[in-house]
Amino acid sequence: MNFLKWFSIKGNKSTKQEKDPELDQTLDSLLEQMKMSKDFIYFVHGKGAQNIHCYYFKTLVDSKIVHRDILPYLNDESITTLEKIKASLPIEKIEITKDLKKIENKILTGSVLIKLNEKSKEAVLITAELKQAREVSIPEVEFSVVGPKEAFVESLDTNINLVRKRLPIPELRLDEFQVGKLSKTKVAVISIEGLTNKENLNTVIQRIKDIEIDTINDSSYITQLISDNRNSPFPQLIDTERPDRLASVLTEGKVGIIVNGAPHAIIAPTTLVEFFSAFEDYFLNWITASFFRLIRLFAVMFSILVTPLYVAVLTYHYELIPKDLLGILVTSRREIPLPPILEAIFLELAIELLREAGARLPTKVGQTIGIVGGIVIGTASVEAGLTSNVLLIIVALAALASFTTPVYKMGNTIRLIRFPFLFMGHLWGLLGVAVCFCFVLGHLLRLTSLGRPFLEPLYPPRIQDLKDAFIRLPLSFQSKRPVELQTEDTMRFNPKKAKDKKEIDE
Question: pLDDT tens-digit profile of 62-89?
Fold first, then answer.
């Protein structure tokens, strides 16, 4: 038994000794694999015994930094160790490491690797990233006449700078992660320490850590992967391209998510009412802002219900139509061979086709297609007897009303759910529209955003949060943060001081 045990131990030692050469070659194997790419640069800097081996991707590294801040300082003959290289270079981010994973990640994100010995496992990593990003421009989706004109871009550092510029406080907390096995996309979670509810923050962080996917190309991927109900047509997180809006909601206690390569940030948690609140509302007088907000809510209900109600009434409920209006409808439909449902579907699909074509074509061509196509198709369909002029006006107004939604993704949802209402109105009339409305309402009651009720402040009822829901009361009345966020610091400011207006002679 002792002989067998000794033989087993000796065999394990010999196996370990056989693996050591393979471990010594791991870094060399990685570099040899990278050399297969045509944009990978390798050269030896120096003469005689002082040879310095340099490795980097020319498409990821700024050549100006290499030739100005790295190579000239390597000519010093006193440089004999990696520590001296680190001390001599005028670059802040320099690291000496043996970690293979770190070396691989740094080279692939724009660092220069330097070794004093070609076979050495230890190397210096010098950050010389080539930053290619467009300049900060004006918002295109959430454009406002009044207010700041800055929008997020595809650079994570630039976007964080835009937020920190508006919140210059040490409590602003930033957690950064890498998501995607292949893309290794940087994702930053922003919150305010001592204010943001830790349960909300931990939920966001945990869901991002649990993501298993190969690539992340946009923040919309994160939105779909961390939402409470991924099968709901209603978005449960808000996308925004405005840094001022993100900074504002952070002070309310919400959590922000910024993805490298995405010009939109994510706001969580959120409620249904916030999707119909434009950030420009806070730049206007509270009476004007409340009026516009009520118009948007009315436009949404009008866009969803007006066409289904038209189909339901003309199919089953003629008695509900006033006599004067009934004559007009009969005249407009006198020569139309199609039933109301087919007539409505034809026009609804035509509107959606024009909208999709206008969105996919270049800007100038898309505008021409939308205007000319709408006029030509609408006029031709009425003259050909395929649709009535009354329904054409109704569908056009419904489409126009759907575009009043400030958040683009919610506008898509509104245009989508019109079709179930349309079919239910055709099958069961007004009863079908009511049944469909109950289904949608039941779905919204069950929907949550990071575990928070999606219909708050309606359900559960929160009187305090109604100050900034359907209407926006003056800012001096909004001294407390939203109840649904359960922030650690509930007070925004002292309401008594906000209402006091002293004259200059007092």
Answer: 999 999 999 888 887 778 888 988 888 9
List beta partners, residue 45.
52
Residue whose C-alpha is closest to residue 418's, from 401, 431, 406, 443: 401
* CA pair distance 324, 156, nearest whole angstrom: 61
- Residue 127 pairs in a beta bridge with 111
Q: Distance (Å, rounded) from C-alpha 182 to C-alpha 111?
A: 18
What would the DSSP string read from start to end of 390-412? HHHHHHHHHHHHHTT-SSHHHHH
- Sheet architecture: strand order including 94-97: 40-45, 52-57, 111-115, 123-127, 94-97
> What is the torsional sign of CA 297, 303, 304, 307?
positive
CB 435 within 8 A of CB 424: yes
H-helix or E-strand spanning residue 239? strand 238-240
Strands in 11-77 per DSSP E: 40-45, 52-57
CB 242 within 8 A of CB 279: yes
Distance CA 371, CA 383 (A): 18
E strands, 260-405, in order: 265-268
Distance CA 125, CA 92 (A): 11
- Given a cut of 50, whether residue 165 has pLDDT beyond it is yes
Q: What pTM does this model have?
A: 0.85
pLDDT digits (tens, 9 = 90+) for 30-64: 999 999 999 999 988 875 556 889 999 999 999 99
Collect all residues with Cβ–Cβ distance below 8 Å to 364 and sequence separation of at least 6: none
Contact assessment for residue 413 and residue 236, using Cβ atoms and an 8 Å cutoff: no
The DSSP bridge partners found for residue 41 are: 56
List CB contacts of 387: < 8 A, sequence separation 6 or more: 336, 338, 343, 346, 347, 381
Distances in Å between the Cα of 405 and the Cα atoms of 44, 92, 211, 225, 395 are 60, 47, 30, 24, 17
Extract the tokens encoding 279.
């950030």
User: Residues 6 or more apart from 205 whose CB is under 8 A from it?
Assistant: 175, 177, 189
